[in-house]
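Quick entry between incubations.
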Amino acid sequence: MHLTKRLKALGLAAAAGALLATGAIAPAAADTTLRFVSWQKDERGVGDWWGALIKAFEEKHPGVKIEWTKVERGAYSDTMTTLFAGGSPPDIVHLASFEFQKFADNGWLENLDPWIEKAKLNLDGWAGQKTCEWQGETVCIMMLYFGYVMGYNEELLQKEGLAVPTTWDEFIAAARKTTKDLNGDGILDQFGTGHETKGGGGQYLSEMLNYVLDAGGRWTDANGKVTIDTPEMVEGLTRWKAVVKDNLTPRDLSAGEVRQLFADGKIAMKFDGPWLYPIMQKGAAKDKLKLAMVPFDPPVGGSSNVLGMASEISDDRKALVWDFIALATSDDFQTKYATMAASTPPSPRADVSGAKGETPHFDLLVEAAQAAAKAGVDRIPTGLEIQYNEFAKMAMEEAQRMIIQDLDPKAVAATMQAKAEAIQKQ
Amino acid sequence: MSTQSIPAQPLAARAPGRRRRFGLDLARPSRRHWLGYLLLAPAVLLIALIIVYPLFISLDLSFQNVGIARLDQPRRPFTLANYERLFTSAEFWMACWVTFKLLVIVTGACFVLGLATALLVNNRFRGRSIARLFVALPWAVPEVIAVIIFAWIFDSSFGLMNWLFITLGLTSQTINWFSDPDAAFAVVAITMIWKGYPFVSIMALAGLQSIPEDFYNAAKVDGANAWQRFTNITIPTLMPVLGVTIVLVMLWVFRDFSIIYVLTGGGPLKATQTLSIMTYEQAFGFFKMGYASAVGIVTLVLCVLASLLMVGRRAEAMY
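Done. Structure below.
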């Protein structure tokens, strides 16, 4: 009796052990969760594309889940820094193209060259990919390179008998004519154009860059030498001062608020990236809003966001992350990027014919991106990548000082030059 | 059955071996205070872990030339460069000046407004409960929501304040509240006062309610007028409460981040950049954590000094 009981107990223990053993092995392989943090989770269009990509990846890798977490753009850099510094980075790394350099400089981003080589991923002609090269290594894949387009309110321009401007002179004249106090209460209700003048230095610089580029100015040259104290930059600063100081743009608003004002018919002309169109479609004045090329040459453009992998994760996880990147860069998903996100995909192999059918202005987006790329425009100045935030803050403050204290743009350019060189030397 | 066989014995007599083994008799009068320390130990350890340890790390970082800090990285060489740069930086002294201005203006206004409203709602009148509710309301509103409300009130293009100023004929053109250094500072100060005065009010009201009515009755019998009763009874009796409250308000002004960051981000031209905003910007904007730690340590020292000064004054007023 005792023996039978013992045998039964042994049998049960063995069975339980076997179950536990298989259970212990199986979940380790199957229940892998990759962490992915992004600020684009709820964005219309591009957020849907990320969702479709994750779904396709999970279907292709049974048992592997992607934990997709949204972090607001305003807190993104801090959150990612904390995650990396704390030793628990996300496996799939999504960063803005102006901030990845600091992470790469700390050795936190995996060198993707061996993975690219192994997978034979052809990145020739991949828009903005050069930006992802850091100290001779490819540390990320560019996910968007864009060119600015101009949204305009056809009714507001027609009321003043104005054609769509194609040069700076035409633009400034149109902006002055369409800036109005409509009800005579002493407060401007309608603006010729709209720029973000509140918030971070990066966005402020992008707004200013519209005028700087058209005047022939650049923050730095191709070798990274600071080139602010030049007649072209002085002209660019003079134009920016005219637009802001003469209240042709509403003051102290965030980028989102300015876009909404344009969508609601309070702004006549607005320069922005491809993301302006979905906002226009939801605005009160959507039937009056149109898109055209910016009246400047070249348009503002540049890299937007990048995808990479954390260098500290295990090799197994790296292989999975690479599969995710490979899927994102596949022709299929690059084609979907054009249709779902209504933006220009960086891949030259993406089939954009479907997007052209769905998005009426798609050719315009392609044209703007190509014009910016041809002119070698990027929002992040060469040679100031690591110090970009500090440089952008400095340039914003000096531009604000020029407007508040009514300073001569020539003197401001000289100050900016000296300060930028000091920042670069740190 | 078995339990009945054990004779009843005193606890100490039943387990002499165990007591000897640990060598700790908490029942002995000379060691009774040990129990207190033992019970406090978890809390002390926890505080050490979450406050003292990060503080030590910050202090250590402030003496290193480090960008993004990681605990698993080897320590960089000791340097005073961060402090040298800090004390020679115009930006730091500007941040000190802005913090000092805010400290004086916001703490002073909160004190006056808080005390005045507390005295008001301490009186008996119809609707007193609702008045008390309205006085305390700003304290209950989450800081970020309050900031968004004020951002729209002072919006340069579409805000209520510009409309009011123009309608009342106080100005002929709109004021760029967040583009003008003085105006931006005023907006930040007003928002902080609105958010901070109810705390003083609530504390003062609690203090007022604890003053015995006999004091006032006796003063009245002695012929003291309302002002004399206020200066000779109310204020001295309230001082212990007000002293602590002012210290807490000061520390709040020192460390407040969200109001300034959301309203102005420290601008324009650093007109609203306090030491806490500067610390954040250097750490997470420019990734200079060694330098940011130095700013943080100096801020901590200033906070401690200010608190000691205020606590000292409170003690004098009490006795």
